[in-house]
Amino acid sequence: MLQVDDVTVAFGGIRALVDVSIDVEAGRITGLIGPNGAGKTTLFNVITGLQRPRNGQVALGGVRITTKGPRARARMGMGRTFQRLEVFGSLSALDNVLVAVENRGGLGRSARQKAADLLARVDLGHVARVQADVLPTGQARLLELARALACEPKVLLLDEPFSGLDANESARVGDLLEQLAGEGLAILLVEHDMEMVMRLCARIHVLSFGSVIASGSPDQIKADPGVQEAYLGAVVSAGAET
Ligand code: ATP
User: For atom 29 of ligand 1, which residue has the closest CA?
Assistant: First the structure.
């Protein structure tokens, strides 16, 4: 569904990404992990159209989108959430989703109904009238997901959706992501919470110093000596002991 081929990005003398190729399949959750500064955010920005690569291509559903801007990509079915929450704090939860539905061209009562359905979908029906900036982080992240779903994405890009969540909230978001993938959505998950990454992802790409050093199943990634060395050693063995 989403294909990145040989992407290179340089900031002055720093090569943030070097010949990076990854793919994200429909109906699955794909992980993108790597140490701080590895280039995950830069790759995310290339995929969503905020950063133009020096070389390489991005394709969505087989259509090249490398030169298209973020809005065009959103219209073509690319949804995203942000590491720092991007909800409208002064609006109610329902109105936050309604704005996203209206952006997509929805109008009137049917737009309101759709917004209510999306809120119910992420289990937030009971806080529809609550102002977004008083929602706890877990609910605010679910609200962001509802907003992303309003653009009817084929691919959903998630930047650290588990950051700041407690175990219960993480489990809830994890279950929802599994459901969405089960319905055919392609999900790319950038995340530092290795337990969630290993539990949810069918496939994982590992970035280190701007290059993909491994791609494979969670078991393959855990067993990869290069990944252990670059990043995971302590985390994976700690996870294995618990
Ligand atoms: P983190 O996990 O900390 O968010 P990351 O994997 O997302 O890190 P990036 O933020 O993509 O990594 O950064 C990759 C490299 O590119 C780093 O060396 C960073 O300092 C550099 N970099 C990123 N954006 C810019 C920019 N706008 N100008 C100059 N250098 C940048």
Answer: 11
